[in-house]
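Progress note, sequence design subtask.
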Protein backbone atom coordinates (compact mmCIF):
# COMPACT_ATOMS: atom_id res chain seq x y z
CA UNK A 1 0.00 0.00 0.00
CA UNK A 2 1.57 3.24 -1.13
CA UNK A 3 -0.04 5.38 1.51
CA UNK A 4 0.53 4.45 5.14
CA UNK A 5 -2.62 4.68 7.23
CA UNK A 6 -2.20 4.98 10.96
CA UNK A 7 -4.03 2.72 13.39
CA UNK A 8 -6.25 5.49 14.79
CA UNK A 9 -7.63 6.41 11.38
CA UNK A 10 -8.31 2.71 10.65
CA UNK A 11 -10.27 2.40 13.89
CA UNK A 12 -12.51 5.27 12.80
CA UNK A 13 -13.50 3.56 9.54
CA UNK A 14 -16.60 1.38 9.25
CA UNK A 15 -16.22 -2.33 8.57
CA UNK A 16 -17.39 -1.81 5.02
CA UNK A 17 -14.77 0.92 4.47
CA UNK A 18 -12.05 -1.43 5.70
CA UNK A 19 -12.80 -4.14 3.11
CA UNK A 20 -10.93 -2.53 0.18
CA UNK A 21 -8.04 -1.70 2.50
CA UNK A 22 -7.84 -5.33 3.66
CA UNK A 23 -7.72 -6.44 0.05
CA UNK A 24 -4.77 -4.06 -0.53
CA UNK A 25 -2.97 -4.76 2.75
CA UNK A 26 -3.66 -7.93 4.74
CA UNK A 27 -2.34 -6.31 7.93
CA UNK A 28 -5.49 -4.17 8.07
CA UNK A 29 -7.44 -7.36 8.85
CA UNK A 30 -6.16 -7.07 12.43
CA UNK A 31 -8.62 -4.20 12.94
CA UNK A 32 -11.54 -6.47 12.03
CA UNK A 33 -10.21 -9.18 14.31
CA UNK A 34 -9.94 -6.75 17.20
CA UNK A 35 -13.49 -5.50 16.65
CA UNK A 36 -15.08 -8.92 16.52
CA UNK A 37 -12.91 -11.19 18.68
CA UNK A 38 -14.87 -10.85 21.92
CA UNK A 39 -18.30 -10.60 20.27
CA UNK A 40 -17.80 -13.72 18.18
CA UNK A 41 -16.08 -15.65 20.97
CA UNK A 42 -19.10 -14.99 23.21
CA UNK A 43 -21.51 -15.86 20.39
CA UNK A 44 -19.72 -19.18 19.81
CA UNK A 45 -19.91 -20.00 23.49
CA UNK A 46 -23.61 -19.09 23.65
CA UNK A 47 -24.36 -21.46 20.78
CA UNK A 48 -22.21 -24.27 22.16
CA UNK A 49 -20.79 -25.60 25.39
CA UNK A 50 -17.21 -25.90 24.27
CA UNK A 51 -14.32 -24.83 26.42
CA UNK A 52 -12.37 -21.63 25.93
CA UNK A 53 -9.60 -23.35 23.96
CA UNK A 54 -12.02 -25.01 21.55
CA UNK A 55 -13.99 -21.76 21.18
CA UNK A 56 -10.73 -19.95 20.43
CA UNK A 57 -9.84 -22.58 17.80
CA UNK A 58 -13.25 -22.22 16.21
CA UNK A 59 -12.90 -18.43 16.26
CA UNK A 60 -9.56 -18.70 14.45
CA UNK A 61 -11.26 -20.88 11.84
CA UNK A 62 -13.90 -18.17 11.46
CA UNK A 63 -11.31 -15.43 10.99
CA UNK A 64 -9.43 -17.54 8.46
CA UNK A 65 -12.63 -18.17 6.49
CA UNK A 66 -13.54 -14.46 6.61
CA UNK A 67 -10.08 -13.46 5.43
CA UNK A 68 -10.03 -16.01 2.62
CA UNK A 69 -13.49 -14.95 1.43
CA UNK A 70 -13.21 -11.18 1.94
CA UNK A 71 -13.34 -10.66 -1.84
CA UNK A 72 -16.78 -12.29 -1.96
CA UNK A 73 -18.30 -9.99 0.67
CA UNK A 74 -21.67 -8.76 -0.59
CA UNK A 75 -21.77 -4.98 -0.17
CA UNK A 76 -25.60 -5.12 -0.01
CA UNK A 77 -25.28 -6.72 3.41
CA UNK A 78 -23.90 -5.41 6.68
CA UNK A 79 -20.43 -6.76 7.35
CA UNK A 80 -21.44 -7.71 10.90
CA UNK A 81 -24.26 -9.89 9.52
CA UNK A 82 -21.86 -11.54 7.10
CA UNK A 83 -19.28 -12.36 9.77
CA UNK A 84 -21.98 -13.67 12.15
CA UNK A 85 -23.33 -15.88 9.32
CA UNK A 86 -19.86 -17.32 8.76
CA UNK A 87 -19.49 -17.91 12.49
CA UNK A 88 -22.86 -19.65 12.72
CA UNK A 89 -22.00 -21.81 9.72
CA UNK A 90 -18.65 -22.78 11.25
CA UNK A 91 -20.43 -23.82 14.46
CA UNK A 92 -22.93 -25.88 12.47
CA UNK A 93 -20.11 -27.50 10.46
CA UNK A 94 -18.25 -28.37 13.63
CA UNK A 95 -21.27 -30.08 15.12
CA UNK A 96 -21.95 -32.00 11.92
CA UNK A 97 -18.39 -33.30 12.05
CA UNK A 98 -18.85 -34.28 15.70
CA UNK A 99 -22.30 -35.83 15.20
CA UNK A 100 -20.92 -39.28 15.91
CA UNK A 101 -19.91 -38.13 19.37
CA UNK A 102 -22.37 -35.43 20.36
CA UNK A 103 -21.69 -33.24 23.33
CA UNK A 104 -24.42 -31.92 25.57
CA UNK A 105 -24.45 -28.18 25.84
CA UNK A 106 -26.15 -25.56 27.88
CA UNK A 107 -26.44 -21.92 27.07
CA UNK A 108 -24.61 -19.91 29.71
CA UNK A 109 -26.14 -16.49 30.20
CA UNK A 110 -25.35 -13.74 32.65
CA UNK A 111 -28.13 -11.98 34.57
CA UNK A 112 -28.31 -8.97 32.23
CA UNK A 113 -28.69 -11.17 29.14
CA UNK A 114 -31.28 -13.31 30.89
CA UNK A 115 -33.19 -10.17 31.84
CA UNK A 116 -33.25 -9.07 28.21
CA UNK A 117 -34.51 -12.46 27.03
CA UNK A 118 -36.94 -12.93 29.92
CA UNK A 119 -38.53 -9.50 29.36
CA UNK A 120 -40.17 -10.84 26.22
CA UNK A 121 -41.81 -13.65 28.18
CA UNK A 122 -42.87 -11.92 31.42
CA UNK A 123 -40.76 -14.48 33.25
CA UNK A 124 -39.40 -12.08 35.81
CA UNK A 125 -42.81 -12.03 37.50
CA UNK A 126 -43.01 -15.83 37.52
CA UNK A 127 -39.55 -16.62 38.84
CA UNK A 128 -37.22 -14.83 41.15
CA UNK A 129 -34.12 -13.46 39.44
CA UNK A 130 -31.85 -16.01 41.08
CA UNK A 131 -33.55 -18.97 39.42
CA UNK A 132 -34.39 -17.38 36.11
CA UNK A 133 -30.91 -17.80 34.61
CA UNK A 134 -31.08 -21.53 35.25
CA UNK A 135 -34.64 -21.83 33.91
CA UNK A 136 -33.96 -19.86 30.72
CA UNK A 137 -30.59 -21.48 30.11
CA UNK A 138 -32.08 -24.95 30.56
CA UNK A 139 -35.05 -23.99 28.37
CA UNK A 140 -32.77 -22.79 25.57
CA UNK A 141 -30.75 -26.01 25.83
CA UNK A 142 -33.90 -28.05 25.28
CA UNK A 143 -34.99 -26.14 22.16
CA UNK A 144 -34.21 -27.24 18.63
CA UNK A 145 -31.07 -25.45 17.49
CA UNK A 146 -32.94 -23.35 14.89
CA UNK A 147 -35.06 -21.84 17.67
CA UNK A 148 -32.17 -21.48 20.11
CA UNK A 149 -30.07 -19.74 17.44
CA UNK A 150 -32.72 -17.19 16.53
CA UNK A 151 -33.46 -16.33 20.18
CA UNK A 152 -29.77 -15.85 20.89
CA UNK A 153 -29.35 -13.65 17.82
CA UNK A 154 -32.35 -11.48 18.70
CA UNK A 155 -32.17 -11.18 22.47
CA UNK A 156 -28.55 -11.86 23.36
CA UNK A 157 -26.67 -10.57 20.32
CA UNK A 158 -29.33 -7.85 19.82
CA UNK A 159 -29.53 -8.28 16.05
CA UNK A 160 -32.46 -6.76 14.17
CA UNK A 161 -34.69 -8.77 11.83
CA UNK A 162 -32.72 -7.81 8.72
CA UNK A 163 -29.43 -8.82 10.30
CA UNK A 164 -30.92 -12.12 11.46
CA UNK A 165 -32.29 -12.68 7.96
CA UNK A 166 -28.82 -12.14 6.52
CA UNK A 167 -27.15 -14.37 9.11
CA UNK A 168 -29.49 -17.37 8.85
CA UNK A 169 -30.22 -16.74 5.16
CA UNK A 170 -33.99 -16.81 5.51
CA UNK A 171 -36.51 -14.25 4.23
CA UNK A 172 -37.50 -11.45 6.59
CA UNK A 173 -41.03 -12.81 7.02
CA UNK A 174 -39.64 -16.21 7.93
CA UNK A 175 -37.46 -14.63 10.60
CA UNK A 176 -40.53 -13.09 12.25
CA UNK A 177 -42.40 -16.41 12.12
CA UNK A 178 -39.42 -18.36 13.44
CA UNK A 179 -38.91 -15.87 16.26
CA UNK A 180 -42.55 -16.11 17.31
CA UNK A 181 -42.42 -19.91 17.12
CA UNK A 182 -39.17 -19.97 19.09
CA UNK A 183 -40.69 -17.82 21.83
CA UNK A 184 -43.73 -20.11 22.03
CA UNK A 185 -41.51 -23.19 22.18
CA UNK A 186 -39.33 -21.67 24.91
CA UNK A 187 -42.42 -20.70 26.90
CA UNK A 188 -43.76 -24.28 26.62
CA UNK A 189 -40.45 -25.72 27.79
CA UNK A 190 -40.27 -23.31 30.71
CA UNK A 191 -43.90 -23.93 31.70
CA UNK A 192 -43.30 -27.71 31.64
CA UNK A 193 -40.19 -27.29 33.79
CA UNK A 194 -42.08 -25.22 36.36
CA UNK A 195 -44.69 -27.98 36.73
CA UNK A 196 -42.08 -30.67 37.37
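Output:
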Amino acid sequence: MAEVINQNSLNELSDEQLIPLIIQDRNVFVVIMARYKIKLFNYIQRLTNIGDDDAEDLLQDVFLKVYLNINSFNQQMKFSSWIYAITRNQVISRYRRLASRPEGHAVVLDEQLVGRLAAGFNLVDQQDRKNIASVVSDGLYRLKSKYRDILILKYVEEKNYQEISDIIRKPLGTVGSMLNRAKLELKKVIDRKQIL
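Confidence is low (pLDDT under 50) at residues 100-106. Work on this subtask will continue into the next period as scheduled.
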